[in-house]
Amino acid sequence: xxxxxxxxxxxxxxxxxxxxxxxxxxxxxxxxxxxxxxxxxxxxxxxxxxxxxxxxxxxxxxxxxxxxxxxxxxxxxxxxxxxxxxxxxxxxxxxxxxxxxxxxxxxxxxxxxxxxxxxxxxxxxxxxxxxxxxxxxxxxxxxxxxxxxxxxxxxxxxxxxxxxxxxxxxxxxxxxxxxxxxxxxxxxxxxxxxxxxxxxxxxxxxxxxxxxxxxxxxxxxxxxxxxxxxxxxxxxxxxxxxxxx
Amino acid sequence: xxxxxxxxxxxxxxxxxxxxxxxxxxxxxxxxxxxxxxxxxxxxxxxxxxxxxxxxxxxxxxxxxxxxxxxxxxxxxxxxxxxxxxxxxxxxxxxxxxxxxxxxxxxxxxxxxxxxxxxxxxxxxxxxxxxxxxxxxxxxxxxxxxxxxxxxxxxxxxxxxxxxxxxxxxxxxxxxxxxxxxxxxxxxxxxxxxxxxxxxxxxxxxxxxxxxxxxxxxxxxxxxxxxxxxxxxxxxxxxxxxxxx
Amino acid sequence: xxxxxxxxxxxxxxxxxxxxxxxxxxxxxxxxxxxxxxxxxxxxxxxxxxxxxxxxxxxxxxxxxxxxxxxxxxxxxxxxxxxxxxxxxxxxxxxxxxxxxxxxxxxxxxxxxxxxxxxxxxxxxxxxxxxxxxxxxxxxxxxxxxxxxxxxxxxxxxxxxxxxxxxxxxxxxxxxxxxxxxxxxxxxxxxxxxxxxxxxxxxxxxxxxxxxxxxxxxxxxxxxxxxxxxxxxxxxxxxxxxxxx
Lengths: 245, 245, 245
Fold this sequence. Notes:
- Chain A is an alpha+beta fold.
- Chain A has helices at 8-19, 71-78, 135-146, 195-202, and strands spanning 2-7, 24-30, 33-39, 45-52, 58-61, 65-70, 86-91, 96-101, 104-109, 129-134, 151-157, 160-166, 170-176, 183-184, 189-194, 210-215, 221-227, 232-238.
- Chain A folds into two domains: 2-115, Proliferating Cell Nuclear Antigen (Box), CATH 3.70.10.10; 129-238, Proliferating Cell Nuclear Antigen.
- Chain A has a nine-stranded antiparallel beta sheet with strand order 6-2-3-4-18-17-16-10-14. In chain A, strands 5-1-7-8-9 form a five-stranded antiparallel beta sheet.
């Protein structure tokens, strides 16, 4: 038996974060809170969502439980929910998830979790560079890069953090120095990534949200977003592209 | 000779209400105010519009008069009018309608009313259930139902008023009890309707508008919207769908 | 060497004004400020842009200089710039334009100005009627006319200034008298123009911007927009259409 209450904003954020990569997901209701993770069908990116128990208005579970959810349907219905609405999620038996908001009760059949693609192990990555910045600034940089190219280079060194994109006749560099960043360890790293994935990740975030980037060289990047005033943590791990230079 | 002045908001509302069902309509300028009604080409729905004389800023007619109007054209031009603009409608001869707003005078040829599809008789319906609610809430319920199915069931009984939609793997119930409704007689009734029509009807209304629903069992429903602060009454009568269960 | 700083709003306005007609343009950095002009490929319209030196935050040029710019690319990237951002344009050598805003540096290859279509001579036009009005009103009139026809007649006489459009069953007249206009010389003139061009021109302007119209009879019209609080002057010259009556 699961019975939790959260804000519409929180539900919309979690749902948006996951549908960026997959349409079905396993959601774990653990003692410490909600957890979910999944890799996209192309095996290029992973999403890891954590909502601590305290971020919910009410968090009642009689035991730790895993459900399989059609995220596309929840995402669709979440568009009818206002950010300030309170939303109640109820699972009374194995077969149905109830989503209650305002005068509406939405019921959707659960999916057998074992029928959903096996969950990824979270890789242990040693990433030398750590950059903490405003997610809104990052989003703007990716939007600008997207006008130039479908891939970007993230580069970190003593002089700061750079996002670079190169077109046939033009190029763009986003550059923040240590003093402009919220936190920066000056680590040396450089990898290339797909803009399409990054754009998709940015959709959950806005100005005021905190983004921590862990970067290596020709290595996956970890993008950790702290969302909804810190009440939700959404992490994306994205595989690098091979530079053909 | 007709010479009336109304707000842009009122004109836009009337026009929106009618184009939901037909592209040409007869408009009656009566002693008591403007009246129009029409059925859609599929004979599934009827719209009845009434704007009392007092809702106009100026209402001058030398005798009761009926004109035939290309509503699509008026709807199109009404998009150039702001809600707060004052709009003057003038008919000096049988052939032309003038719409004046700001520095603009728009003229459109009238249609011979006898060339427009015969107006429906308003049916006498005995509908046991009466529900009064905020039109904005209704609109949200229909928008949510639309994500699940193309038909909804309206159901009324002692426990309140319900709007239900059923998809293959999910379902939604909007439920308001007597205390949540503005007025409710607890009458027993249940009918199924097309979501597409209901969505179209809702476009005239918003939060704060009053909606009265008269419901029967496998019978047409009457949806009476009080719009523009009560200055316009728009009623839709919608035929039920047959449940194939 | 060019090094100038302007607001995002100003850059966006200049760029929007030029891409209305051409995708590549010569930009002159003169002692007195920025100047550019171009005719569209169909030879129907000309744009003339002038930004006085004082409209820039910083205006440093070591000598007068002409660059060839891919305006479509600048327009594209300008969508990533906020109106309130400060934007720095830098040309250090013949080959590259740098556009710096926030933490972003955008570089685009310059085009050899001699490879861009020869600039037009600005025609000397004797236009009897002069009309000064709010650009927002003009924009609304063109938007309304656009719903009726693809051409409009501009007409000026003692009774004021008119914009007229005629459809098959409807027509629209926008009419402002001398007292409603900001300035008006009552000159007699009448010409017909393409709505598509006028709509395109209006995109740079909004309510509060000043528009001066110089009109003749079956003659090109001059539309002079004062934009961004008077800091930019954008003039369009549009050839008339021949009336086939």
